[in-house]
Specification:
The chain is of the alpha+beta class. About 50% of the residues are buried. The strands form 5 sheets. Strands 1, 2, 3, 4, 7, 12 and 13 form a 7-stranded antiparallel β-sheet that branches. It has 16 helices and 15 strands. About 45% of the residues lie in helices and about 15% in strands. Helix 1 (about 15-35) runs antiparallel to helix 8 (about 270-280) and helix 3 packs antiparallel against helix 11 (about 345-360).
Length: about 500
């Protein structure tokens, strides 16, 4: 959804014309794949982090336009809500000291942005869901003043035809309605990109799907929404419900949601783009002047703008990406599973674990997706979101066949961390970086601590000390921000508040 979209209406023929263009784009993609026109391997990865703005009181600040004006860097952009920003790190080649280099760039960039925000009485917060957000904050009036967000909201609301219902039953239960998609803005994530060749795409995507639950379990950082303690990672159910174009009747018919885990392992990137076109109506039917098949006939490379825009309105947790850079097309897997934060070190540790694990699993002689039913991977994802680092997941039984249930901390420490280390070695990542950042994941599992567990434990300490719910959430958020800025990984954070009795 990063395209510049001009606001305006659509007439009755626009969607039919757009559907035809999508089919042309899909045919062109098929030819590009068949003719092997894609970029050669470059081991390129990219990183985006969605951020919150909050004041010294821990409360959200609706001022991203003012803060972005102060930051004055193309690396920082708007996001859906006025309390959101996004930072984009330029692509890096996996290898050497890339992880420490990324950490240094993030420390520098986020520190600068935080100082600029503080000049305006705000600050940068990396967290899955800002715990102090209220229903009154997440209304259409607080959507960023950008055409594409307003238009996307209008089209999703029109497709649904009624208020959105949020119903998340976790430690506590939240039920409410919204007249807009604004609650989606509460979900702030990390997106990890990996450029792959067409021949490797399916293996990498399948591997990423298989480990999505593990990523969520060890990285969970969003246990609160609207004052309620919900799932350990509440972003996925919130995102699905806040963007759901299906009224209850269509849900009952089994119509697929636009925020989607998927329903099968794939054999090609083509499978995912074809599914998107077959299952999901257009929300933004803007037609480009390009004739993609004519461009191919003339020896050029089509931009496939309709396909790209449509793909951007379908929120797979692992999304296929087609892009053209310097006249050469490439494919990426965009991993959208992780919440932001808690610290730069934690973000880079999550990235190291993902890139290492996906490399190792994609090259395994007995791929995990041939031994794990897709339905089990889907169920794992929900269990991980619900229970975080305490989740039990289904996983292939080593050596003996079949699937067993195993605590995620045991699975990670016994089986997946060694695989991630081997994967980082295959990327030629420096051993010092490998050991430092995978060590963070190991310690989280050893201590059974991540951002979500720290938030919940510290909140309950505040309640036990006599604070009311809203005051406890604000106090916990302020303490989170202090420790986030100090920068030590979350498994080292003391629970509670300085000076308070333990």
């Amino acid at each position: 959804m990063g395209e510049k979209v001009e606001a305006g209406g659509f007439d009755l023929s626009d969607r039919q014309r757009y559907r035809g263009k999508l089919q042309q784009c899909l045919a062109a993609l098929g030819r590009l794949l068949a003719e092997k026109r894609f970029d050669r391997p470059k081991n390129l990865m990219g990183l985006e982090i969605e951020l919150n703005l909050a004041g010294a009181d821990g409360m959200p600040r609706m001022m991203n336009a003012e803060v972005l004006s102060r930051i004055a860097s193309p690396d920082f952009q708007t996001e859906l809500g006025m309390f959101n920003l996004e930072v984009n790190i330029v692509p890096h080649r996996l290898g050497g000291r890339v992880l420490d280099q990324l950490a240094e760039e993030l420390h520098t960039g986020l520190g600068y942005a935080d100082r600029k925000a503080q000049e305006l009485g705000s600050g940068i917060v990396m967290i899955g869901i800002l715990p102090t957000l209220t229903q009154q904050d997440l209304v259409s009036a607080n959507l960023s003043d950008v055409d594409r967000y307003m238009l996307l909201n209008d089209q999703i609301v029109a497709a649904r035809g009624e208020d959105f219902t949020l119903d998340i039953d976790g430690v506590e239960r939240l039920t409410c309605t919204s007249a807009s998609i604004a609650p989606e803005a509460a979900c702030t994530s990390v997106q990890l990109h990996l450029q792959v060749t067409p021949g490797r795409f399916a293996d990498v995507w399948n591997a990423a799907q298989a480990v999505a639950a593990v990523q969520v379990a060890v990285g969970a950082n969003a246990p609160f929404l609207f004052g309620k303690e919900l799932w350990r990672e509440s972003r996925p159910p919130l995102f699905q419900q806040a963007t759901d174009t299906r009224p209850p009747e269509l849900q009952a018919q089994g119509v697929r949601p636009r925020t989607w885990f998927g329903e099968r392992w794939v054999d090609s990137a083509y499978d995912l783009f074809e599914e998107n076109i077959r299952f999901f109506p257009a929300l933004l039917p803007f037609c480009d002047d390009e004739d993609p098949l004519r461009v191919l006939e003339d020896g050029g490379v089509p931009r496939l703008q309709e396909l790209v825009l449509h793909n951007g309105t379908i929120y797979r947790w692992n999304r296929p990406v087609y892009a053209v850079v310097d006249g050469v097309p490439h494919l990426r897997v965009e991993n959208r599973v992780l919440p932001a934060g808690p610290t730069v070190t934690d973000v880079i540790a999550n990235a190291a674990f993902y890139y290492g694990l996906v490399r190792a699993l994609a090259e395994d002689a007995r791929p995990v997706w041939t031994r794990l039913p897709f339905a089990a991977a889907d169920e794992n994802f929900e269990n991980a979101c619900r229970h975080g680092i305490d989740a039990e997941l289904q996983w292939p039984r080593p050596g003996r066949g079949g699937v067993t249930r195993v605590p995620v901390v045991k699975l990670v420490r016994d089986e997946l961390l060694p695989l991630a280390a081997a994967g980082l070695d295959a990327w030629n990542v420096a051993p010092a970086d490998r050991d430092l950042y995978l060590g963070v994941i190991e310690e989280r599992c050893r201590r059974r601590t991540n951002g979500a567990s720290w938030q919940a434990d510290t909140y309950h300490r505040a309640r036990e000390a006599g604070l009311e719910r809203e005051a406890a959430l604000a106090a916990m958020t302020r303490r989170y921000c202090e420790l986030m800025r100090e920068g030590q990984p979350v498994h080292t954070w003391p629970v509670g508040f300085p000076g308070a009795r333990s």
